[in-house]
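Honest question from a wet-lab person: if I give you the sequences of every part of a complex, can you actually get the arrangement of the whole thing, not just the pieces? Trying it with mine:
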Amino acid sequence: MGEAIAFYFISACILGFALLVITTRDTVHSVLFLVADFLFVAALYVLLGAQFLAAIQILVYAGGIVVLYLFVVMLVNLKRPPEAHSDPHRLTKLGIGMSAAVLLELGAIAVYSSRLPATPVAPGAAMPVTGNTEQVGWLLYTSYLIPFEIASMLLLVAMIGAIVLAKREL
Amino acid sequence: MIDTFVIPLLKILIVLNATLVAVTYMVLLERKVIAWAQSRLGPMRVGPYGVLQPVADAIKLMIKEDITPVRADKWVFTAAPIISMVPALIVYAVIPFGPVVNLFGRQVSLYITDINVGLLYIVSVASVGVYGIILAGYASNSKFPLLASLRASAQLISYEVAVTLTLVSVILMSGSLSMVSIVRAQESSGVWYVFVQPVAFVIFVIGSLAETNRAPFDMPEAEQELTGGFHTEYSGMRFALFFLAEYANMIVVSSVATTLFLGGWLRPFPGVAALGFLDIIPSWTWFLIKSFLFLYFFIWIRATLPRYRYDQLMRLGWKMLIPLAIANLVVTGIVKVLLS
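Yes, you can. This is the full assembly:
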């Protein structure tokens, strides 16, 4: 009961803040609502018993990435309202198409996961470690080693790319 | 009922109040120590030797006019001091002041909670604190605070990397993210981690000076260049909140350093049985003594060293501390694998 109330409250906050992010005119306020949104997502993770993920969510997204967003927004100074485009509906079709694609994807995931047995991947009992962090680490370095390495390669490439772009002569 | 509600609430009440009192007296201590370092007396007027100075300061700050600049972003301007203060306070939830003790016939732990991602919680909550500084500078709608807040946030983000890397090497040593388990690991290995991780400790100390905007890394508050820093436009109690947050962060940093590197509530040389008589002193007293010495060190540094230049600060952070921290981490990992 209490968990359900907490879930609906947190979900409502997440959706509410997400709406505010895209409807607010002031860019800095928009970024702030995004931070609040991330904090509530972290709360959702805590509710699911994934404390490690919650802490990482706050550390990486709220504390790291969005700070850089805020930096950029403050430096380019978007105090004035964004200029009205000659055709405000120019991206309507693209927007509807993208939203439909995401909706379709979510629906597909929902249908697919409802057909699977209750514990589809890597049952916790097989793991020699207990504890949230240890289990995440164990899974990352055994079952999901290759996806993990590919993700780190991707980050490395992004990092090198950023350096190359920022520094014209090395 | 008593165990789930009353005792935790009492603990929270005690820790919060003790922190705020400690913060105000920290300010007095700083003024006194710096005065002694400069052959002055420091505050002497309010109470004997100025011991009531914090009370006078608090009253002054509370009854001062609270000004919001006309062109400020009102909501963000109001929220910024709160965003600074709250992370600095909620971090105390996981700091272990002592082990589980027997108090009035009841087992009471001298920490509010011990979550299994304690250290990560501290790092992530502290990383949210930087918003207070950025937003204060932005919302003031004024040049100097904006410059100061850009400096402060760049400095915080840069040094956070080095500090977090040193924490990783401590986690490697202890095999746990829980603050209580880290102290227990030092107890069972019989040695404080400052002796096995001296490089990490030095990087942590330098990095924490920078993260708390303390001298010699107090560029964000360089009066000569910035007229005051990110809180130039703040007055009265809102300014006081920034002030309190800064000193509360100092206490947090020294508590974390005590827990991770100086054995937390353990007595010196916990592995040497001959020093067992030191156990007469209660465990939480050891914790407080170590934290106090660390705080004193902060003040001592401020009275001793001149301020760094901004580019020097960035070079020190990115080109020396971070590579050193990574090297330390790699060596720690290799040694750990070889020994096991």
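Two things worth pointing out. Residues 51-76 of chain A form the longest helix (26 residues). The mean pLDDT of chain A is 84.
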